[in-house]
Design goal:
Blueprint (H helix, E strand, L loop, with lengths): L1 H7 L6 H9 L13 H12 L11 H14 L6 H28 L2 H16 L16 H8 L2 E6 L10 E6 L4 H10 L1 H12 L1 H13 L2 E11 L8 E4 L16 H7 L3 E4 L3 E12 L9 E7 L4 E8 L5 E9 L5 E11 L7 E10 L41
Helix pairs in contact: 2-4, 3-4, 4-5, 5-6, 8-9, 9-10
C-alpha cells in the first residue's frame, strides 16, 4: 500500500481523488460483495451522485467508496450488512489515511497532506468538509444552521480587552460556524441555551450544550528562535513573541497580494536552522477523548512545500512543542504558515502566517510587534504599521 502511495500520490490531489486512492488500496480488496449487492451498489451510487465506472459495481473498492460517501452524507444504506461493512471500512480508513499523511509529508507536499487530514476529520465526524461545521453538533440540522445564521447576537466580552479598559461588545450578524458558537456560548451561555432550546427542544438541548462544553479551546503562543551555528554546544539567540488565538478559530490567511505590503517581516539569516516554539494552552478540558489528537504542520503555501510536521496526542492544559526548519538559502521574502489541525473535529483548526525576510549575515533585526490581546480576532502579524494587529469587531472566520 505504501508503495502504491509513493507511485500515485502527487502534490495537488483533491479530496475526491484522495478518497478514490484510499478506497483502491489492498486493505479493501477483501471487503465482501454479496449476492445481488452489485445492483444495490448501483442504486446507492445513483442516490449519492457518486461517479463510478459502470462495470465496477461488484468491486469491493467501489463498495468501500460508496460506503464512505454514505457515511459522510448520513444517507440510509440498503441493508444491515452495509452497516457492518461501513464499520469495517472506517476501522481501516483511519490507519490508511495516517500512512497517506506520512507519505505526503515525506515528499514535502503541503496541500495533499492537509487534504488527507481533512478526510480523517470527515471520517470521524461523518460529515462532508463542504457542510457547515455546526452540523457536527448533536440534534443540529440544516434548518437550525439556517436559523443560527440569521440570528443576530451581541456578546459582552467582559475583561477581555483590558489594554483598552473595561469590556466591549461584539455584534455577530448570525452564527456561521462552530468556533463562533463556542465563543458566544463562553460569554453568553444562557442566551445560547435559550436559543438552542427553542430550536431542538428541552429534551435535546442538554446533549448539544454538553458537547459545546467539551470541545477543545486552544490558545497558541509562538516564539521563533534562530540557532547560532557558530557557537558551540546549544548556544543560540532567540527573541520571544507571544501570539494568542483566544477561542477556537481559523485565522484568515493573508491574501498573496497583501503579504509583501502589509505583513511585519522577521529578518533571519539565510540557510540557518530555525526553531518555532509553540505553546498550546487548552483552556477547556471537558471529558477526555482518548483518540483525540492534533497535527502541527509548518509549510509555505506559495511554493506548496511542507517544512515540518509533528503529531500530538491529547492536549494537556499546557504543552510545548518545537518545529525545526531551515531558512531559505537565498535572500528574499517568505511567508510560512503554521497549521494546527485536529484529527477529530471539523472547524477547530487554526493557522498563523509568519513572514520572514532572509538576509546575508550582518546584524539581523529580530524585533517583533508587542503581544496582542487573547480575545481579539486578528490576522496574525498583520497590519503592524503601528505595531498592533488588526482587530475585527464583527469577525468572519474562514477556513484555509
Amino acid at each position: 500500500t505504501v508503495k502504491v502511495f509513493h507511485e500515485q500520490l502527487t502534490a495537488n490531489l483533491n479530496h475526491d481523488q484522495l478518497l478514490k486512492l484510499l478506497c483502491n488500496t489492498h486493505e479493501y480488496s477483501e471487503l465482501p460483495v454479496r449476492h445481488n449487492e452489485d445492483s444495490l451498489n448501483q442504486q446507492l451510487a445513483q442516490q449519492l451522485g457518486v461517479e463510478v465506472t459502470d462495470y465496477s459495481f461488484d468491486s469491493p473498492h467501489t463498495k468501500a467508496l460508496l460506503l464512505l460517501s454514505a457515511h459522510f452524507s448520513h444517507a440510509p444504506v440498503p441493508c444491515s450488512d452495509y452497516l457492518t461493512d461501513t464499520k469495517s471500512v472506517l476501522d481501516q480508513a483511519l490507519r490508511i489515511l495516517q500512512a497517506m499523511v506520512d507519505v505526503s509529508a515525506d515528499e514535502g507536499w503541503l496541500a495533499t497532506a492537509l487534504r488527507c487530514m481533512n478526510i480523517v476529520q470527515m471520517a470521524v465526524q461523518a460529515r462532508w468538509l463542504s457542510g457547515s461545521t455546526l452540523l457536527t453538533l448533536p440534534h443540529i440540522e440544516q434548518r437550525h444552521v439556517d436559523r443560527l445564521a440569521s440570528t443576530s447576537i451581541t456578546v459582552n466580552a467582559k475583561g477581555q480587552a483590558s489594554h483598552r479598559g473595561g469590556s466591549r461588545h461584539l455584534k455577530l450578524d448570525g452564527i456561521q460556524c462552530l468556533p463562533e458558537l463556542i465563543s458566544v456560548y463562553q460569554h453568553e451561555p444562557r442566551t445560547v441555551h435559550r436559543l438552542l432550546t427553542d430550536m431542538v427542544g428541552d429534551q435535546c438541548v442538554q446533549a448539544t450544550c454538553d458537547v459545546l462544553e467539551c470541545l477543545p479551546i486552544v490558545d497558541v503562543r509562538l516564539r521563533l528562535r534562530v540557532v547560532d551555528a557558530q557557537a558551540t554546544g546549544d548556544s543560540e539567540r532567540h527573541h520571544p513573541r507571544a501570539v494568542s488565538s483566544g477561542f477556537p478559530q481559523t485565522v484568515r490567511p493573508v491574501p498573496p497580494d497583501q503579504r509583501v505590503r502589509d505583513v511585519h517581516r522577521l529578518k533571519v539569516p539565510c540557510d540557518r536552522e530555525c526553531a518555532l516554539h509553540i505553546e498550546l494552552r487548552r483552556s477547556q478540558i471537558g471529558r477526555k477523548n482518548k483518540d483525540e489528537g492534533w497535527w502541527l504542520v509548518l509549510g509555505e503555501a506559495d511554493s506548496g512545500e511542507l517544512l515540518a510536521l509533528k503529531r500530538l496526542g491529547f492536549l494537556r492544559r499546557v504543552q510545548n512543542v518545537t518545529l525545526s526548519f531551515f531558512s531559505a538559502e537565498q535572500p528574499g521574502h517568505h511567508v510560512y504558515t503554521l497549521y494546527i489541525i485536529s484529527d477529530s473535529y471539523l472547524g477547530l483548526d487554526q493557522q498563523y502566517d509568519i513572514a520572514l525576510e532572509t538576509a546575508d549575515g550582518g546584524d539581523v533585526n529580530y524585533s517583533l510587534p508587542p503581544e496582542t490581546s487573547t480575545f481579539e480576532l486578528m490576522d496574525v502579524l498583520k497590519d503592524s504599521h503601528h505595531h498592533q494587529s488588526r482587530v475585527e469587531e464583527t469577525p468572519e472566520l474562514e477556513g484555509w
